[in-house]
Design a protein that fits this description.
single chain, 6 strands, 10 helices, Uracil-DNA Glycosylase, subunit E, alpha/beta
Length: about 300
């Protein structure tokens, strides 16, 4: 009897399976791929369902991403108190070499090794110059320059005298000897380490002052000399040199003792050595000018004796 009950259950199970399969196949042919939930029971909110813990599936799969738990944001920190404004910085005292900005040369830079050759070209032009007929008729030879083409310091005087006209070198007479002493004994430099030139390259008759036309005719040569040598400092010797290069009518007493600029180059003006020979009392002022120049150049200024 027990066996018959089991057979009836098997038959009923097989019949149900066959009906379900036929139903599924019919739905599949109709295009139904998923079955809706039974409408007999209303859906229960998931929050109300307490599911028992499930065992881990036997198949190892990639671990699910951990849930993102939003952390409470910390309270914003109060802004820091405003810092007191720093005290204004004192502007440092600059060396005269930085007071005047960039140089204002028109010509391109020439390498130091090529400057002697470039100056020699100008010297040949000067030797052949005939712009000033009176000067040409009275000169023995032109007087171009003396010293180093790479000098830091350039001295510019007025015009050659009789000794310079005879030898072709600027500042070689009595005034020239005093200038040499100013350079060597006063500043501690060698004459061959500086560059020396004049506004005029020819001696005016009787050592008179150059005329404005003569200065204008010769100024281009001097300008090219300055552009090639490119000194760090200029020292203008005498009233004619100072008023011409600074384009002013002020007296030497008004021009000396302070800084100027020529083509952007820091420049001082002081008395001409020939004037100092006639007026020895002015040597004190000229020495003060040279000390100002020495400090700017970083040279050691001798301590005052006594």
């Amino acid at each position: 009897m027990e066996v018959e009950i089991d057979d009836e259950r098997d038959i009923e199970r097989i019949r149900l399976i066959r009906e379900v399969r036929q139903r599924l196949e019919s739905l599949a042919r109709a295009g139904v791929s998923t079955l809706p939930k039974s409408p007999e029971r209303p859906p229960v909110p998931r929050s109300a369902v307490v599911e028992p813990p499930r065992e881990a599936p036997p198949v190892i799969s990639a671990p699910a991403s951990p849930p993102v738990v939003e952390q409470p944001k910390p309270a914003a920190a109060p802004p820091p108190p405003p810092r007191p404004a720093p005290p204004p910085k004192q502007r440092p005292v600059e060396a005269p070499g930085s007071l005047f900005g960039a140089v204002e040369f028109k010509a391109p830079f020439i390498e130091p090794a090529d400057r002697s050759a470039a100056l020699a070209v100008i010297a040949q032009e000067v030797a052949a110059c005939v712009r000033c007929p009176v000067l040409v008729q009275n000169r023995t030879q032109t007087v171009f320059a003396d010293g180093s083409p790479t000098a830091r310091l350039m001295f510019i005087g007025e015009a050659p005298g009789a000794d310079e006209d005879r030898r072709g070198v600027p500042f070689v007479g009595k005034a020239g000897q005093l200038l040499t002493d100013m350079i060597t004994k006063g500043m501690g430099l060698r004459r061959e380490d500086v560059y020396i030139a004049n506004i005029l390259k020819c001696r005016p008759p009787e050592n008179r002052d150059p005329t404005p036309e003569e200065s204008s005719n010769c100024f281009g040569y001097l300008e090219r000399q300055i552009e090639i040598v490119r000194p760090e400092y200029l020292c203008l010797l005498g009233r004619i040199s100072a008023t011409t290069l600074l384009n002013t009518a002020l007296s030497m007493s008004r021009l000396r003792g302070r800084w100027h600029r020529v083509f952007g180059v820091p420049t001082i003006a002081t008395y001409h050595p020939a004037y100092l020979l006639r007026n020895p009392a002015a040597k004190k002022d000229s020495w003060e000018d040279l000390q100002m120049l020495m400090r700017a150049m970083g040279l050691v200024v001798p301590k005052k004796k006594g």
